[in-house]
Fold:
Amino acid sequence: MEALAWTALFSPAVAVVAIALAGDRIGRFAAGVLAAASTGVSFLCSLVVFFTLLGREHDDRSELSTLWTWLSAGDLEIGAEILIDPLSVFMMLVVSGVGFLILSYAVGYMHGDVEERRYHAYKALFVFSMLLLVQSGNLLLLLAGWGMVGLSSYLLINFWHARREAVAAGKKAFVMNAIGDATFALALFLVIQRVGALDFETVFADAPEALGEGSTVAVLVALGLLGGAVAKSAQVPLHTWLPDAMEGPTPVSALIHAATMVTAGVYLIARTSPLFELAVDVQELAGILGAVTLLVAGLVALVQTDIKRVIAYSTMSQIGYMFVGVGLGAYGAGLFHLMTHAFFKALLFMAAGVVIHALADEQDIRRMGGLARELPWTFRAFLVGSLALAAIPPFAGFFSKDAILSSAANAGTLGWILWAAGIAGAFLTALYTFRLVFVVFFGEVSPFAREHLHRERFEGPLAMMWPVAVLAVLSAVGGLLQIPGVWHAVDTWLEPVAESAEEATGITAAFSILASLAAALGGIAVAWALYRRPGERPAAIRRRYPWAARTLEHKLYFDEAYDAAFYAPSSRLALWLGRRIEEPLVLRSLGGLATGVRDVSDRVAATQTGGVRAYVLALAMGLAVLAVVFLLVA
Structure:
C-alpha cells in the first residue's frame, strides 16, 4: 500500500521530468497523453489504497511512510513522509480522478497550440503539487506542497504570457497567495516554538497542553492557518485574484476551480481541525468569512458577461459553503460538498470550454444565444451541471449543500445566521446560474454565433467530449453517496480523522431542505422571467438602479480599495525614494565616483615619465622618509 501511495504521488512528477527532458523529441499530442496517463496512474493507485483501507478496522486506517529524514535541527526532525489515512485518500481520489478527466480534456482543447508541451508539463506539475499537499505527513511538507501549488497556478494562469492581462492576473494570484503563505509559515514557527515538532501526530497530541485552549498563542496559530486557507481558497478579503485567473486556458480554470488549488483551504482546516478547535472563535470566523463570500460572489456573478467569470464567482460562492461547513465543525458535510463541487464545477467549465471552442474563442455571453439547438449535447451537459450547482434534487449539489445547511441549523444562534446566509446564497446561485443557461442556450441564435459557430462530429474533439460525459453522470448521481438522515458514507469514512458535528433532524431538517429548495426554485423562476427571451427587463432594472449595477460591475470596489490602500501609496513612495534617495545618493554618486577615479588615474599616470633618474630619486626620497620614521620611533 505504501508503494502505491508513493507511486500515486510521483507519477505526475515523472511525466513533468520526461516532457521537460524530451523537449521537441516528444510530440505535442504525446506530451498531453503522457500527462493525462500519469494522472490516471495516480487515480488507479489511489483506488487500490482506498479499497485496502476500506478492508481495515476504523482504528487501523492510518499509516505513515517515511523515505528519509529531510531536515534535522537539534530535537526537530522532519521526514520526507506521506500520511495514508481516510482524509488524505479521499482527497487523492478527488484530485487524481477529476484531474485525470481535466487533463484528458486538455489534450483536445489545447491541440495545435505552439506551446502545448509546456502546458501539459505545467498541468502535471500542478497535480503533483496538489497530491504532495494532501498526502504530506507533516506540516512542513504540507507547506511545501502549498507553495508549489501557488507556483503552478502562476505558471498556468500566466501561460499565454504574450498577453498583458494574463501576466497581470498571474502576478495578482501569486501576490495574494503569498500573503496566505506567509501567515501559514508564521503559524508553523509558533508551533515549533511551543510544541517542538511538525508531524501531525505529535502536534495534535501535544497542542492542548503546549498551546492551551483559547490562549493567545492558539488563536495566533489558528489565525495564521486561516490566513493561508482564505488566500488559497479565494475567500473574502483575499478573493480578488480568482476571477482574474480566467485569463488562463479553460482547462486551467477547471483544474484550479474544481479539484485542486481552491479546495486546499477547506482541506487545511479539516486536516488541522484539532488546532482550530483550540481557538473556537477563529474556527467560527472561518464560517463567517465563508458566508460573507458566498453572498458577495453571488451578487457580483449576477452582472458578469464573461461565461468563465460567472462560473469563477460561483466557485468562490460554493467554497464559501464549504467554509461554513468546516467552520461549524461539519467536516464531513464540507468535504462532501468539496467532492460534488469538483464534479459539477469541472463539468461546467469544460462544457463552457466546448462553447468557447465552437465560437472561435469567444467568451462574452452577450454574443451568444440559441446554442441549445446548435450544441444539444453540450447544452444537456451544461444543464446537468447547472442543476447540480443550483442544488436541485436529485443532482449532486442538492445533497451536499443541504448537508451543510442542515448542520448549520443545528449549531445554535451563529449557525442559524449562517444558515440564513446560505439560503440567500441558494437563491442567488440559482439566479446567476440559470441567467447563464438562458442567455447562452435559449432564444434565437445570435448573429455572432451564426457567423462564427463551427461544429464537429461530436460538437468538439472526442478528447474533450468524453470527460464531459463522465462528469455529467457524476454530477447527476454523485450526491447519492451521502443522503442526510439516510446514510452518511463520507462522515463515516472521515470519522477517524475529523469527527463531524451532528446535522439537524426531524422538523428542523425538513424545514431546512424545503427552504433551500424553495430559494433555488425561486431563483430559477426569476431567471426565467428576466432572461428566457431577450427583452428590456434587465436593462430597465439597470436604469432604475444604476448605482447597484455599477457597484456590482466594479465587484464591490475591492480592487479599487486595495489599489488605494496598498498599490497607490507604495507606488508614490517608490517614486519619491527614486527621486530623493536613489537618484542623488546612488545614481549620481556612482557617476561622481567614476569621475573621481578617472581624475586620480590621470594624475597618477602623469607621474609615469619613463625617466630612470626620476624613479631613482623618488625611491631615494622614500627610503629617506622611512629612515627618519624608524629613527624617531627608536
About this structure: Residues 558-633 form one domain. Residues 192 and 198 are 7 Å apart (CA to CA). The beta strands are 63-73, 76-84, 482-483, 487-488.
